[in-house]
Design brief:
The complex is a heterodimer. Chain A folds into two domains: 3-262, Spore Coat Polysaccharide Biosynthesis Protein SpsA, Chain A; 280-363, UDP N-Acetylglucosamine Acyltransferase, domain 1 (3 Solenoid), CATH 2.160.10. Chain A has helices at 37-46, 61-67, 101-106, 108-112, 133-142, 196-205, 214-219, 242-251, 255-262, and strands spanning 3-8, 29-30, 34-35, 51-56, 81-86, 118-122, 146-153, 165-168, 174-178, 185-195, 227-231, 279-281, 286-288, 290-292, 297-298, 301-303, 306-307, 312-313, 318-320, 323-324, 329-330, 335-337, 339-341, 346-347, 352-354, 361-363. Chain A is elongated and about 65 Å long. By secondary structure, chain A is an alpha/beta fold. By secondary structure, chain B is of the alpha/beta class. In chain B, the strands form seven sheets. In chain B, strands 1, 4, 5, 8, 10, 11, 12, 13 and 14 form a nine-stranded mixed β-sheet that branches. Chain B has a five-stranded parallel β-sheet with strand order 16-19-22-25-28, with no helix packed on it. Chain B is globular. Classes of the chains: A alpha/beta, B alpha/beta. The interface between A and B is large, with 40 and 36 residues.
Chain lengths: 369, 376
């Protein structure tokens, strides 16, 4: 059962302010040393998929810089490997387009030239660690055209409005796709497996709707397509706002999440390495419940935060509930509370910034404050 | 193939027996250093940062981890098509095979390899030195003096000179005498075991030395005295800066502590002359809610719940709740349980230390705990 992977990085990425002004959501730094796309890519290669296509948006500079020829994911290969495929400008019909039909039509050779049985189609910006092998098995045994991966969300953690919730009948068939739900919801994780031959047919049928998102079209044609569902029971981090970014970063300090998503020896999350030195703590440092990356020099206090590589935090400073991206220079006696600093930010001595969990303060790349 | 100006031959085959259990299953150059590095990183990074893109690594003693670690050399930008890194173990020929019998013998057995690249000069390095340098400066002196051999030397206190191989040089830097561990030293210039030979001179010396039944086939004991006796042009290159040979447990411990205590030693934080390494991709470290960290160096992948003071934690180390680690070096992937007391110790790679274990010497001697395990 040969399977290839397709990741769409052609997301609009709204709701992140300056953070996605000059980069794709897929290449948004996350978790101290990762970019969001690392999870989708690692999930593919950890499941034995060695041919992966990435649909890249027009502002793909940082994405290409990060992925290169795919060496960290062992995708720099002769047979198969990584295919970076240009996407189009975003859809006009749906503001939140992710899997544009025209992006797939434009790159239809990716589907045509391979002899794989299945294609796993995945988002590029969700944080989770999955083994796709059970999904492939489930889908192949079901004989359906397409199987969607979902996560059961309790009330209160409702993610509808950020995507689709599925209605699933007793036989496991998807009978409805809604954008709102009540009570427990089966949130569609923007991830599915589809028969390659069916995918080619699908693209042929709906060529005229090329400006639409693939799953918008699917949702209106549930009577024509045989769709199954597969439950993912692991941790799932959805990032669709700066508040999410803060929250899902903090999630890394949770023992269960850290072990399941980041420290799984069977399925490590790969990323581009930069070879920084270990973190240097000085006698004045005081660090609690935080994630710290290589190359940092910590002289101040850090609580409940994520610190990316090569960040300096000066004496007497307090960094709390914050995300500080790589190469930031935090001076002395600074207070940062619920702040997200993009790369290369300088915070001068004595500056105090207080945001909130729902509305963190965002400091754009390279700013000096 | 393009002719090379200089290639490097890195001696990495010795057992390093003075490091005890640290090298019981891995070659000394592959021993962990400074949390995320391995000893060989420093020499390999020096080569790359000096523009030397062809390196032969002579291996013999337990090379499995070293071979895996060096890999294609990609981590040091040494995965290049015209050159790159080559692991060179002893090999058999028509008349059987032999082990490398000494430093010079190891190079002798790879004359064919060096001839493949036909370099003007050969840089001979040890795989167990901690320093940063640009070999081009030494190469420039070697070439401008038209020397057959340039020996990198460092000034040592005269009272300690009897522990080293001492070079006596005239005012122009020509070596006039070489004495291994002299009782009454007349110079304080110690050989660092870093040599640049012009290939033609070295090739000739190796061929002659090979058939000398008296020779131990060692650079210090045989090749240098022989070239000196033949009135070849031998000069010293005065090295300035931080350099350590990590041949003993004490020097291995001290030079790692220098990374955080002595900022004039090796700055691993600087982005120029970066020290590259081939570490696995670990997640960032997690520092727990009740952790207490004093001055320390902590690597990626660590999880710290206890107290760590004046210590170095290698990649993937776990320090359990209530444990106190002081003045110690915990090598990669060691797991320290709860309520342990570890003082002035080196805990071997991949060791599991049970809860409530106490490690430390009452007299303050450095304790090496456990044996190194094969793991990748």
């Amino acid at each position: 059962m040969k399977t290839i992977g397709l990741i769409s990085a052609n997301y609009k990425g709204e709701g992140f302010g300056e953070l996605t002004e000059n980069r794709t959501l897929a290449s948004l730094p996350y978790g101290g040393r990762y970019r969001l796309i690392d999870f989708a890519l690692s999930n593919m290669v950890n499941s034995g998929i060695t041919t992966v296509g990435i649909i890249s948006p027009y502002n793909s500079g940082s994405l290409i810089d990060h992925i290169g020829i795919g060496n960290p994911w062992s995708l720099g290969r002769k047979k198969g490997g990584l295919f970076l495929m240009p996407g189009s400008l975003y859809g006009v019909q749906t503001a939140e387009s992710r899997f544009l039909i025209r992006d797939m039509l434009k790159n239809i050779k990716f589907f045509e030239r391979d002899d794989a049985d299945y294609v796993i189609i995945s988002s590029s910006s969700d944080v989770y660690n999955i083994d796709f092998m059970p999904l492939i098995k489930h889908h192949s045994e079901s004989g359906r055209d397409l199987t969607m991966v979902y996560k059961k969300m309790p009330r209160g953690e409702d993610l509808s409005g950020k995507g689709y919730c599925l209605d699933i009948d007793e036989s496991g068939k998807v009978t409805g796709m809604k954008t709102e739900s009540s009570g427990w919801s089966c949130y569609f994780m923007d991830c599915c497996i589809v028969n390659r031959e069916f995918m080619l047919e699908f693209l042929d049928w709906f060529e005229a709707l090329e400006y639409m998102d693939m799953f918008d079209v699917v949702s209106e044609n549930l009577d024509k397509i045989d769709i199954g569902a597969f439950e993912f029971r692991g941790c799932f981090g959805k990032i669709s706002s700066t508040a999410d970014l803060l929250r899902v970063n903090k999630g890394m300090t949770d023992y269960g999440i850290r072990n399941e998503v980041f420290c799984n020896p069977e399925r490590p999350i790969f990323t581009k390495t930069q070879d920084e030195a270990p973190v240097l703590y000085t006698p004045d440092s005081d660090v609690r419940n935080s994630t710290i990356s290589a190359g940092c020099r910590i002289e101040g206090k850090v609580e409940d935060s994520t610190i990316f590589r090569s960040v300096d935090i000066g004496k007497g400073s307090i960094v709390r509930n914050s995300v500080i991206m790589m190469h930031c220079d935090i001076g002395e006696d600074v207070v940062l509370d619920n702040v997200i600093c993009d790369k290369y930010v300088t915070i001068n001595d004595g500056v105090k910034l207080y945001g909130s969990g729902s509305e963190p303060i965002i400091i754009g790349k390279g700013m000096k404050i | 193939m393009k002719k090379k100006k200089c290639i490097a031959m890195l001696l990495a085959g010795g057992q390093g027996s003075r490091l005890g259990s640290l090298t019981s299953s891995i070659a000394k150059p592959a021993v962990s250093f400074g949390g995320k590095y391995r000893i060989i990183d420093f020499s390999l990074s020096n080569c790359v940062n000096s523009g030397i893109d062809t390196v032969g690594i002579l291996v013999q003693y337990k090379p499995l981890i070293l071979n895996k670690y060096v890999g294609t050399g990609e981590a040091w930008d040494l995965a290049v098509s015209d050159g790159g890194v080559h692991i060179l173990p002893p090999y058999a020929g028509e008349t059987g095979g032999e082990w490398y019998e000494g430093t010079a013998d190891a190079i002798y057995h790879n004359i064919d390899f060096i001839d493949l690249y036909n370099p003007d000069n050969v840089l001979v390095l040890s795989g167990d030195h901690i320093y940063k340098t640009d070999y081009n400066k030494m190469l420039k002196e070697h070439e401008s003096n038209n020397a057959d051999l340039t020996v990198s030397v460092i000034e040592v206190p005269i009272e300690e000179a009897s522990r080293f191989g001492i070079m006596t040089a005239d005012e122009e830097g020509n070596i006039v005498k070489f004495t291994e561990k002299p009782k009454n030293p007349d110079s304080n210039l110690a050989s660092m075991g870093i040599y640049i030979f012009s290939w033609a001179s070295l090739r000739k010396a190796l061929l002659e030395d090979h058939v000398d039944p008296q020779s131990e086939h060692d650079f210090g004991k045989n090749i240098i005295p022989k070239m000196l006796a033949e009135k070849k042009k031998l000069i010293v290159y005065r090295f300035e800066g931080y350099w350590r040979d990590v041949g003993t447990v004490d020097s291995y411990y001290d030079s790692q502590m220098d990374l955080m205590d002595n900022m004039d030693s090796i700055n691993v934080f600087t982005s120029d002359e970066k020290v590259f390494s081939n570490s696995n991709i670990y997640p960032p470290q997690y520092i727990g809610p009740d952790a207490n960290i004093g001055k320390s160096l902590i690597s990626n992948g660590c999880t710290v719940y206890g107290a760590v003071n004046h210590s170095i934690l290698g990649s993937g180390v776990v320090i359990g709740e209530g444990s106190v680690v002081e003045d110690s070096i915990i090598l990669p992937n060691a797991i320290i349980g709860r309520d342990c007391r570890i003082k002035k110790a080196i805990v071997n790679e991949g060791m599991t230390v049970e809860d409530r274990t106490e490690i430390g010497d009452p007299d303050g001697k450095i304790v090496v705990y456990g044996t190194s395990k094969l793991s990748i």
